[in-house]
Amino acid sequence: MKQAFQNFPFSLPMILDGATGTELIKAGMPSGVCPEAWILEHPDVISHIQKRYIDAGANAVLAPTFGANREVLARYGLSEKVTEMNIALARLSREAAKDALVGGDLSPTGKYLRPIGDMDADTLIDIYFEQATALDPYVDFFMIETNMDLAATRMAVLGAKKASKKPIFVTLTVTESGKTMSGDDPKAAFLTLSALGISAFGLNCSTGPREMKTLLSPLKSLSYSLGIPLIAKPNAGAPAADGTHTHLDASEFADICREMAEDGILILGGCCGTNAEHIAAIQYALLDMKSPKIPEKLDVSRLASTARIIAQIPEELPDPIIPDEDFADNADEMADEEEFIYIQIENEEDADIVLESAPFLSAPLAVCGNENAIQKLERYFCGKILTVML
């Protein structure tokens, strides 16, 4: 397993913790309060929850900083307390963890980037930079989780990378369609985020373990080809067709997690409805797991993506499109013919023209031209770009 994921900094398989929110509610946290503020008023509660996870066999717990960015804290009048609260919350987890790992938990702000929403990309990067900077001295990695929009997720990764060199794990949350609420495809998102240097990728929340296994299995070849392990942090159950909720006991949950591990999904934990019993059951189930099946590797050297699709860019390319007033129409025409768009940009103005059309482009990009202009495009384009050297 280590040979397949040589650059992954921790041992595999890796067991993460279970739910925090539902455990806090069971411990008496009322609805409508700021969870992070409530935790700081009741520090023994989170310490007890996290110690139970570690005693159950978790290799890592997540600091309870899920909503501790300034955009979310502003809803409670606490936007000026970002640094203070993140430090205090991370210290609680660090003390509870002892020798276990601690992940700094980052989550969505609820805002969408322009032109879909009103959030500026650099502002969003700064929001995550602020939170990650506060967490950095106390955590071993960052977990950017429950993401429903890839464009915003990229900014979270860039913010964390600006603040720290520590590993970054990313998980999406998907709907019944298997896509995020923004329509992002998990496989395309995985490739996109791999270009930013993440250390692990997967899904959390969304559904139960059986459904999550089905959603993650198609990503296995890409995982082994990129050398980036997959994460599964499912709920304790899933909604049934009749509107009821199927809740799995710890043993059933863990049996499916072992199946996932044997299928090559090697970072496992729990989300809503899971507790220390589920984590203990996973730890026990993995004791006799079979060696993961190693899939055939893909050639990823010429893959490019948007948020929704992946394309293999051929060695022989047509003449590139020059960004101008007809760029969007020309790009659509090439996408229809080639299933990718090849462009040449020579300055930042060219990059800006492409970025204005980026949310509406129907195919991945291959790019040649000025290095600085390409770097700007790579920073803000929601996809993985293939750079072509002339």
Helix fraction? 25-40%
* Quaternary state of the chains: single chain
Structural class: alpha/beta
- If you average the pLDDT, what whole number results? 96
Got a strand count?
A: 15
CATH superfamily of the largest domain: Homocysteine-binding-like domain
CATH topology of the largest domain: TIM Barrel
The fraction of residues assigned to DSSP E strands is 15-25%
Low-confidence stretches: none
CATH architectural group of the largest domain? Alpha-Beta Barrel
The largest sheet, given as strand count, sense and whether it forms a barrel, is: 8 strands, parallel
Could you give the order of the helices and strands?
EHHHEHHEHEHEHEHHEEEHEHEEHEHEHE
State the distance separating the first and last CA atoms: 38 Å
Secondary structure tally, helices: 15
Overall geometry: globular
Please give a structural write-up.
The protein is an alpha/beta fold. The chain folds into two domains: 14-288, TIM Barrel (Alpha-Beta Barrel); 303-387, no CATH class. It is built from 15 helices and 15 strands. The strands form four sheets. An eight-stranded parallel β-sheet has the order 1-10-7-6-5-4-3-2. Strands 13-14-15 form a three-stranded parallel β-sheet. Strands 8-9 form a two-stranded antiparallel sheet. Strand 3 (101-106), helix 6 and strand 4 (141-147) form a beta-alpha-beta unit. It is globular and about 60 Å long. It starts with 13 loop residues before the first strand and ends with a strand.
